[in-house]
Specification:
- The complex is a heterodimer of chains A (121) and B (154).
- Chain A has 121 residues and is mostly helical.
- Chain A is built from five helices and two strands.
- Chain A has a two-stranded antiparallel sheet with strand order 1-2.
- Chain A is elongated and about 55 Å long.
- Chain B has one domain.
- Chain B contains five helices and no strands.
- The chains are: A mainly alpha (121), B mainly alpha (154).
- Chains A and B meet through helix 1, helix 3 and helix 5 of A and helix 3, helix 4 and helix 5 of B.
Chain lengths: 121, 154
């Protein structure tokens, strides 16, 4: 096993796993942390405003989930990519490299689909 | 500070846009004869030599975008929500998602260009480059539209 083959498997597995896990994190709202930039506060996990008395407070204290979704997907993909480097090369050679592109495009379409509610407001 | 970062972010994006467009066109429609026209010369570039620059520019631009996003979320987005720019905010959300997916694609993209494998079809490399080019163009255009609606300092 050469380092070139290992790095190729790592890179391909990482990109594929990230795309899938990012869509999962987005759909299930699995942010590893939530950032409140106006307060300078970072909380572990996904936190949504539960202020039922004045939901408009969401405008006053905006939360950022994008960093958390990205980190969730990045850490998950890292695990998959490390596992992929352990597999023998003959196993992964059978995989069609085009799957990488197909998964990316599918993930992008899924992200657009999950964003559709914005366009119905 | 936010304005300075936004301008640097924009400049990096312009450089990235130029590099990835050169590479994509030279990959999808390589110049076969001596290029005579502007378009011919535009695509007659050594495409592999752009890979390192594209990776560095994409990573730097995304990192800066992530920093500027803090200011955007606090100062700009609430005003856009109050003004009812829902469609534009939706397009910007898509830009965020695409940018993250593109960032994770960079290692595979780099490997395809800098360590090409004999048993790997050139189509994979072309497809990866096209996906990345689409993400860069989308991000650039939506970022530009967003900034035109309500730029920093307005």
């Amino acid at each position: 096993m050469t380092s070139s083959h290992a790095s190729r498997r790592f890179a391909f597995a990482y990109a594929t796993a990230f795309a899938v896990l990012y869509v999962v994190a987005l759909k299930l709202d699995l942010a590893l942390f939530t950032v409140y930039p106006s307060l300078g506060v970072v909380l572990l996990g996904t936190h949504h405003s539960r202020d039922v008395a004045d939901p408009a407070l969401g405008f006053a204290v905006p939360a950022i989930y994008w960093y958390g979704w990205t980190t969730t997907a990045a850490l998950g993909a890292l695990m998959f990519a490390l596992i992929a480097t352990v597999f023998p090369q003959r196993w992964t050679r059978r995989l069609w490299p085009g799957w990488l592109c197909v998964v990316q495009v599918a993930a992008m379409v899924a992200c657009v689909y999950f964003t559709m509610p914005w366009f119905r407001l | 500070m936010a304005t300075v970062l936004l301008i640097i972010h924009g400049l990096l994006a312009v450089a990235l846009l130029g590099a990835i467009t050169h590479q994509t066109l030279s990959t999808l429609a390589p110049a076969r004869a001596q290029p005579g026209s502007f378009f011919g010369r535009f695509r007659a570039v050594p495409s592999a030599s752009y890979a390192n620059a594209i990776v560095v520019l994409y990573a730097a631009s995304t990192l800066l975008g992530a920093v500027v996003y803090l200011y955007f979320r606090v100062d700009v987005r609430p005003a856009l929500e109050q003004a009812g720019h829902w469609q534009t905010l939706g397009l910007f959300d898509i830009k965020e998602h695409f940018a993250a997916i593109g960032l994770a694609l960079l290692p595979a993209y780099w490997v395809c260009w800098r360590q090409p494998s004999a048993d790997e079809p050139a189509r994979t490399r072309a497809a990866l480059t096209s996906i990345l080019a689409f993400i860069v163009w989308w991000s650039f255009l939506i970022g530009h539209v967003m900034n035109n609606i309500r730029g920093f300092g307005s």
